Amino acid sequence: MTGGRNTEPELTNDRARREWQWLCREVGETVARATIAALPGNRRPYPLNVARALGVALPPEEKLPPLFVPADESVMNAALAQARQVLHGR
Description:
Elements: H1 14-27, H2 29-37, H3 47-54, H4 73-87
Helix pairs in contact: 1-2
Pfam families: CPPA
């Protein structure tokens, strides 16, 4: 907490999570959280409000980063093979 205010963003859906991820990449998580702490009045710490306070425009949805970065293909294939064995009882 900074200045007595919680610095956790309010992430209500996947888009908000992606917007927060983008903001943290653009300005840094420390700056984004400090901005939450400094939001005036009762403004909720939605990524859009944080971006506005920073004077940054959020990109369109198709330009936001994916929530999950695909793992190494061999690791992914091994996990899928293991899941298939469990599902098929082998």
